[in-house]
Structures are given as C-alpha cells and as structure tokens.
Specification:
The protein contains nine helices and ten strands. By secondary structure, the chain is an alpha/beta fold.
C-alpha cells in the first residue's frame, strides 16, 4: 500500500537545540500511527512541519505524491491535512455549531451554505448535538476536546494529526474519546496521534514510533516497541507508560 504522507530527511533546530534530526517517516493510507516521547522530544514541532506552521531546515514533506514542504498551512489543509491542538483552541464567543461552520467553510474552501448539513452530522457523530447552540467557552474539557476533533474533521481531512487529545481526561472520558477516534478511523481517514496516555494510544494505532531528542529511536508493533530497553529507560519503567509489565 503506497504511503499517503512521507517525511524525508527532516531536520530542524532552534539555536543549539535539535528538535528534528534527519527524520524519515511514512504514513500508509488508512493507517493509524502513534508517536510517543518525553516532553521536548520534538513531537509537536514535527506536526508543525507537516502542517506548515514550522519550516524545516532541510528535508521534504510529501503528501499524496506532492511536495508540500513550502506550501502554506491553509493550502495543505484544503488538500486534506488537518490537526488538533493539545490545548483546544475554539472561538470561545461562538457557538459550537458556528465553530464547525467556520472550520468547514474556511478550512475546507467551501461556502457556509454548503457545509451546514455536514456540520450538523458532525455534531451528532462527536456527541455534541445537544450543545450545538452553547458558546464554546462554556464547554467541559471533554467537550472542548470533542469540538477540537470535530473542527479538524469539518475540513474533510485525508490525514488527521491528533496532539495529546486524551490529556487531562478521566478514564471513562478517555474511553469515549478512543471510541470516537476509532469511529473516525473506520471511515478511511489516516491518523497520526501524539499521546502520553499510552494505553489509549495502543487501543487505536497499528504502529508506534518513539522520538527522543529529535531522533527516531524505535518503530514497530506498539506492545513490542514500548518494552524495548531503550524506550523503557527513557520513561524510567513501564509504569510511566500506564501498562502492566506482564500485559
């Protein structure tokens, strides 16, 4: 199966700090890829490079066979690259429905009239239908995260980048989020998910990669990768990954 997204020899530094060190990475069509690593490993910077908010010092970003390395973020979004943010960033003074309409119209390059039906469907799908007319600023953390995901989906992505969407949630909320992401994946959307809540991550992803100090240090089957000595050493034990040693 050909890749939908490819990073070729991506490097980036901020002064003396290397945040991406000659990274090669591919995402297959329909695949869910997980990324873990300690804070400062370069994970979110990598998302910025993919979506166009951060320019790499060297290397290429290929999407659907096109070199998008120097393409503006809004153009990448309209091609089918969408992301969520670790801290949800809705328009707080707008309603939930208005937030989706803005994302769908401007992110997807369509008129407001064209997107109304699709946005209504997304409200149902993401569990927000009964909150459609609430101001986004009034939502709980789980519902803000649902809205953040819904706004990314409203743009019509082929690839969805998720940045720590499970952070701050209690167990039943995390389970609900995992169900939603699995539902999104079932539609054929390819997913890259950065997450510290690793038990949630491995409930979804096919493959796991580990970043450390800007370098890709492990890649493969999720349960096998998280038990590699170089990975457990970074996290100082499996307990930090939220997993039992004999799981």
């Amino acid at each position: 199966m050909p890749p939908i997204l490819t990073l070729e020899k991506i490097s980036k530094r901020f002064g003396a700090v290397v945040v991406a060190d000659n990274i090669d990475l591919t995402l297959l069509r329909g695949e869910a890829l997980g990324i873990i690593g300690p804070n400062g490993a370069g994970k979110t910077t990598l998302f910025g490079i993919v979506t166009g908010t951060v320019a790499p010092d060297s290397g290429r970003v290929m999407f659907e066979g096109h070199d998008v390395t120097r393409m503006k973020p809004e153009h990448r979004c309209r091609m089918g690259l969408a992301r969520s943010f670790q801290i949800p960033q809705p328009f707080g003074g707008m309603t939930v429905f208005e937030n989706l309409v803005v994302a769908a119209a401007f992110g997807g390059g369509r008129s407001e009239r064209e997107v109304y039906a699709g946005c209504a469907g997304l409200l149902e799908r993401c569990g927000l239908a009964d909150k459609a007319n609430r101001r986004a600023a009034s939502l709980t953390l789980l519902d803000r995260k649902r809205l953040e995901l819904a706004r990314a989906l409203a743009t019509g992505p082929r690839v969805l980048l998720l940045d720590e969407v499970a952070g701050g949630l209690v167990e039943h909320e995390t389970a609900a989020l995992v169900d939603l992401i699995n539902d999104v994946r079932s539609t054929g959307v390819s997913i890259v998910w950065i997450e510290h809540v690793v038990h949630a991550l491995i409930a979804v992803v096919d493959r796991l990669v580990v970043l450390h100090e800007g370098a890709l240090i492990a890649e493969g089957d999720p349960p096998e990768v998280i038990r590699r000595p170089e990975v457990t050493e970074i996290y100082m034990g499996l307990e930090e990954l939220g997993l039992e040693a004999d799981a």
